Amino acid sequence: MSQKTFHVAVVGATGAVGQQMLNTLSERNFPIGELSLLASARSAGQTIEFKGENITIKEATPEAFEGVEIALFSAGGSISKKLAPEAVKRGAVVIDNTNAFRMEEGVPLVVPEVNPEDIALHKGVISNPNCSTIQMVVALKPLKDRYGLKKIIVSTYQAVSGAGNVAMDELVRQTKAVINKEEFTPEILPVGSLEKKHQIAFNAIPQIDVFQENGFTLEEMKMINETKKIMHDQSLEIATTCVRIPVLTGHSESIYIELEQEVNLDEVRKLLSEAPGVILEDNPAEQHYPLATRASGRPEVFVGRLRKDLNNPKGLHMWVVSDNLLKGAAWNSVQIAEKFIEGL
Ligand code: A2P
């Protein structure tokens, strides 16, 4: 019997995440019958090679979703708000990588290692969480299941590719300018319709997206609210500090957690080494721990630097790294699509 195939659309096919979505669909041999590559009018008419075939990019319009069964969106929140309902109206299931619908009731927010069962509750749209949230919840899920999770304090060290191709170009441009002692004007970071921009080369910017009234940034509030939703625990205590650093790809996170019970480090190592989607890299004697350079291009979440807190027997520290474009975006979206078709 021949396998059922699907008409798949990738919205934002020319972008940093869109390109990785195409790579991942190809590598996973996703059952595609027809592939629509959608982007802005600027890219319409250009071609992208997929599995040896040149596919012409079309402008993302409501009509472009005629016949589409699965639409992967990663072209920014405003495009998702405008076009995801049009895709759904035409019968597609949307897997949305933007912030547009994540916190809406009735929209599952899914990390397949954590809450795959939520996929079945969709009403047309399934949201893919923020990249920083995804890698954190994958690492914490096995510990939450074993010990109960009370509190998280996390600081992120985020790569510029989270802000798209333009931010990667900006880091390279600024780095060259600094080395060559040339003048330059920061143009891209921090992201989010902000007037003021800062240097990212040889710097750390403690702001990702716009500030909220409570003093946290939007990125920090995304991590807080999304983690509670994915883990189905509104009472979870969580504080976040999100920092952009001059790394191209791979987000790193320093995470402190308080569990409901005293932790046993050997057991923690065993749980993490057996957890789906996790690779334990925790051997200080060999200076072996997760690194963005090594995680880049890989689909897993890397965990190391495990230490019990010195004051709280229920406290644990760790370092968690993952490719923000893959598990943080493209791979998580394709994984949702795989689970979705499994359930049909
Ligand atoms: P385009 O290349 O035609 O501008 P990144 O995250 O790397 O910045 O990429 C953003 C993605 O969103 C790109 O694929 C970009 O396409 C797409 N995009 C931007 N504006 C629009 C729009 N108005 N309609 C559809 N796609 C858009």
Provide an overview of this structure.
The chain has about 350 residues and is α/β, with parallel strands linked by helices. The protein has helices at about 15-25, 75-90, 130-145, 165-180, 220-230, 265-275, 290-295, 325-340, and strands at about 5-10, 30-40, 45-50, 55, 60, 70-75, 95, 125, 150-160, 235-245, 250-260, 280, 300-310, 315-320. The protein has 2 domains: about 5-130 and about 330-340, NAD(P)-binding Rossmann-like Domain (Rossmann fold, 3-Layer(aba) Sandwich), CATH 3.40.50; about 135-325, 2-Layer Sandwich (Dihydrodipicolinate Reductase, domain 2), CATH 3.30.360.10. The protein has 8 helices and 14 strands. Helix 2 links the parallel strand 6 and strand 7. Helix 1 packs across helix 8 (about 325-340), helix 3 runs parallel beside helix 5 and helix 3 (about 130-145) crosses helix 8 (about 325-340). The mean pLDDT is about 95. Adenosine-2'-5'-diphosphate binds next to helix 1 and helix 4.
CATH architecture of the largest domain: 2-Layer Sandwich
How many separate domains make up the residues? 2
Give the N-to-C terminal Cα separation: 17 Å
Radius of gyration: 20 Å
Sheet bearing the most strands, described? Answer: 6 strands, parallel
Question: Stretches where pLDDT falls below 50 for ≥5 residues?
Answer: none
Bound small molecules, by name, code or SMILES, are:
adenosine-2'-5'-diphosphate
Total E-strand runs:
14
Percent in helix: 25-40%
Q: Give the mean pLDDT.
A: 97
Secondary structure tally, helices: 8
Main CATH class of the largest domain: Alpha Beta
CATH topology of the largest domain: Dihydrodipicolinate Reductase, domain 2
